Amino acid sequence: MLGELLSILAAAIITWLLFVTVDIFFRLPEAGGVSGASGVARDIQTAGGDIAGGTMMGNIVCSPDASAGTLLAACGVYVAGIPGGLIAAALVFIGNRICHDPGYAGTTGAVLATFVVYGFTQVGFAATDFIAGIVIAILSIQGLSHVHASRLLARLWRVRQ
Description:
By secondary structure, the chain is mainly alpha-helical. The protein is built from seven helices and no strands. It has one domain (2-160). Helices cover 79% and strands 0% of the residues. The termini are far apart.
């Protein structure tokens, strides 16, 4: 039981680093790329958060980004290994086009996550550890404190600039 919890915690850290890195690389904090992202950012800023972090959070909510891609890839790997993860990446790509998302953060995150999750399954982790881990990672950004999460994301964004 403790081993399972530690695996989930490790998976949460790995997936958090993966999706935040991909989203920052694709400049999600820079501007609202999809409908609704700027509105989310303004609301978070009004509540005392940072506009750049809020913009990234808005992009995450309004279109499949690397966090969604990572979750779907982990589910795909659970169901069908690498082909399942790549099918998930294709579905994320379609979702991005439906949302008129001009970027590829979600698709890139899904492809990377497919190979990361599969690689870790070869050394003793389970794909289910990553499914639970990414849910925890997403919760840490979207569910605990918008103000503090937006400030953390903005600090990471400033490092990238």
